[in-house]
């Protein structure tokens, strides 16, 4: 056998083996971004293994409005709210802030000093407020709107979440006007 024939035979054997390996090898999965899970039913991909802090509800309970002689109003309510970790990983500690819109200045003011919350497991929720000690009394200047109240979670941005857009909820205080009494005609007694 000549050197040329040997080289040709060797090249043919390599190609044959490569072809067999390509035919016999199982299909390789497509590269997957490890930060994303497979598409959800709606087709959107969701970041994997991340918490998602959500304010589920915010209620302003026991609202009261009392007019003052100068046209201002004394307003009060008791905030109560629930928040949860809607993600699929623990949240770690995070800062929570209760705030109200100061009607006199138009600026958000802390109702309570911001505080740190405990770590929330996936799916875990927590409720705060709603107690007599949480009652917020305000004096509203004449003509000013009723106050707004909001709750914000992870205000320092320390939790890397799958959705950073649902960390707060705001409510406007609404108070229904008192019902007018029903008047009955009075007939004077006959003499």
DSSP helical segment count = 1
Helix content: 10-25%
The string of secondary-structure elements, in order, is: HEEEEEEEE
**Rg over alpha carbons:** 33 Å
The CATH C-level name of the domain at 53-172 is: Mainly Beta
**Number of E-type strands:** 8
Question: Mind describing the biggest β-sheet?
Answer: 4 strands, antiparallel
Calculate the terminal CA-CA distance, rounded to whole Å. Answer: 147 Å
Task: Using the coordinates shown, work out and report the CATH topology of the domain at 53-172.
Answer: Immunoglobulin-like
Poorly predicted tracts of residues? 4-8, 10-37
Write structural notes for this entry.
The protein has a domain at 53-172: Immunoglobulin-like (Sandwich), CATH 2.60.40. A hairpin with a 5-residue loop joins β1 and β2 (73-85). By secondary structure, the chain is mainly beta. The strands form 2 sheets. Strands 1, 2, 5 and 6 form a 4-stranded antiparallel beta sheet that branches. The model is unreliable at 4-8 and 10-37 (pLDDT under 50). The protein contains 1 helix and 8 strands, in the order αββββββββ.
